[in-house]
Write a structure and sequence with these properties.
Length: 253
C-alpha cells in the first residue's frame, strides 16, 4: 500500500513555507489564522494572494509550485491549512511550528550556550504597532495596457500589489506611491477596493453563492429540504381540512 501523501506547512518566527511532498498540480493554498502581521508575499509571479483578518488564500494562475510563501513580522497563530489540486483533491496540511527557543528544546549542552535561561521564550514575538494584517507582493512588472494611472494613462514599470488586489506604483510601497487601476470590458477604470465595499456588489456575490450552494450533508440537500417543506404543508392542509363542515367535503359528520 503506497504511503499517504502529506502536505507540511512550516510556521517560523519570520517566514511561512510549505512542502507538497510529491503532490502535483497545486491550484490553491488556504491558511486559517488569528493575529496580525505585515507580510511580503514570496510567491512566484503566477500566483495571486488575497487575505482578510482570519484567512489567506493563494491561487495558482500557472504551473509553478512555491516553497517559501511569506516573510513577515508580527504575531500570528496558524489554526489550519489545506491544499487543493487542479483535480479537486483536498489535502489538509500538517503544521510545524519552528523558531521557538525554549530551554527544554535545546539540542546542545546548556553550558555551551551563551544566553541565560531567562532569555528563552516559548512564543513568537509580537509587534504592538501592527493594527491589521497586510500582505504585499513587491517588484512586479506592468506591461503596456495592463495597469493605468487615474487619468487613464497606461503605466509600465515596477509596481506592488496589496492583499486586497489593489496595485500601486513602485517596486515597494513609498509615501509617494500612486494608485493603479485596471480596466473592465467597457474600458472603464475600476478599483477593486470600491467593489469590496459596495453593498450591492456584496449582495450579488452572496446571491450567486446561494445559487451555487453545495450541501455538506444529506440533510442539507435541496431534495431533503423540499421534502420537509412538502410534509409541513401537507400536515397543515390535513389539520385545516378537519375544521371544514359537511359542505367542505371533509370531516364534520
Amino acid at each position: 500500500m503506497p504511503a499517504k501523501k502529506i502536505v507540511e506547512l512550516f510556521h517560523g518566527k519570520n517566514e511561512i513555507s510549505i512542502s507538497f511532498n510529491s503532490i502535483e498540480n497545486i491550484a490553491c493554498i488556504q491558511i486559517i489564522y488569528t493575529g496580525k502581521m505585515h507580510a511580503e508575499s514570496m510567491l512566484p509571479d503566477d500566483w495571486l494572494v488575497i487575505a482578510n483578518k482570519n484567512k489567506i488564500i493563494c491561487t495558482s494562475l500557472g504551473n509553478s509550485e512555491p516553497e517559501l510563501l511569506f516573510n513577515y513580522i508580527g504575531l500570528i497563530k496558524i489554526k489550519g491549512a489545506s491544499v487543493i489540486t487542479k483535480d479537486l483533491e483536498i489535502y489538509n496540511a500538517k503544521i510545524n511550528v519552528e523558531g521557538i527557543n525554549t530551554w527544554d528544546k535545546i539540542v546542545s549542552e546548556y553550558v555551551y550556550e551563551d544566553r541565560l535561561w531567562e532569555s528563552f521564550s516559548n512564543t513568537h514575538s509580537q509587534e504592538t504597532a501592527i493594527i491589521r494584517t497586510s500582505i504585499v507582493k513587491n517588484n512586479l512588472t506592468a506591461n503596456l495596457n495592463e495597469l493605468f494611472l487615474k487619468d487613464g494613462t497606461s503605466y509600465q514599470g515596477l509596481y506592488h500589489q496589496h492583499e486586497d488586489g489593489h496595485a500601486m506604483t513602485g517596486g515597494k510601497h513609498e509615501k509617494d506611491s500612486k494608485n493603479l487601476y485596471r480596466k473592465d470590458g467597457l474600458g472603464r477604470l475600476h478599483d477593486l477596493r470600491k467593489y469590496k465595499k459596495n453593498k450591492n456588489f456584496v449582495k450579488s456575490i452572496k446571491s450567486r453563492a446561494e445559487e451555487l450552494f453545495i450541501p455538506k450533508t444529506r440533510a442539507d440537500s435541496k431534495d431533503i429540504q423540499d421534502y420537509k417543506t412538502f410534509k409541513i404543508t401537507e400536515r397543515k392542509t390535513k389539520k385545516g381540512s378537519k375544521k371544514l363542515g359537511p359542505s367542505g367535503g371533509s370531516g364534520g359528520y
